[in-house]
């Protein structure tokens, strides 16, 4: 269980005022998934997590249930919980939902964003760029996800924010599982450009930039080759067909 401990790398005593133990466990596991320290299909052993965080298995179960509702953890009857590992078809559906959601959020953000929110987002982008500059890809990816969640906050629509949080974390799983090539940061100018368009109230420009941004993310994912599957029968399907 040492690798799991290193992946979580936390202490329950780090909680801030107002957070319950459930919140702390949830947030740390969520961040570990978003930073890809807990990759798809990782088993989330309740006993090990309880030992790591110093809490009861009841609290661990509640946190895992919350994560399962956001579709980043799968709870399997009598087999325990694992980090979700979307299939290619599921990945395509997730990304399509993300595209629809992001455009709706961008449109609302142009009309509802406050100067304080935009200023906060610019600070977040600066942190993101710094993380990528020092090759801290996990932190950069998490901060990139936080940027998109902040956009949903600008939209001032609670249901969209809830859906966006889930889709952002699911997209992180897709990147961990299906990204091809090197870990390059294509969001350096794209996030700043989006903020500029939102701040200026240029809705069409903001929508165009968001579409381009999502296209860049999608272009780095190999969702068109069945051999990306973890299923050995799929990987070696050609051999099986030849034998039949």
From TrEMBL:
Keywords on record: DNA-binding, Transcription, Transcription regulation
PROSITE patterns for the chain: HTH_GNTR (PS50949)
Pfam families the UniProt entry points to: FCD, GntR
The keyword Transcription is assigned to this record: yes
Record SMART domains: FCD, HTH_GNTR
Top-level taxon in the UniProt lineage: Bacteria
UniProt xrefs under PANTHER family: HTH-TYPE TRANSCRIPTIONAL REPRESSOR NANR (PTHR43537:SF53), TRANSCRIPTIONAL REGULATOR, GNTR FAMILY (PTHR43537)
GO MF term set: DNA binding; DNA-binding transcription factor activity
InterPro entries, sorted: GntR_C (IPR011711), TF_FadR/GntR_C (IPR008920), Tscrpt_reg_HTH_GntR (IPR000524), WH-like_DNA-bd_sf (IPR036388), WH_DNA-bd_sf (IPR036390)
Annotated protein name in UniProt: GntR family transcriptional regulator
Domain HTH gntR-type: 19-86
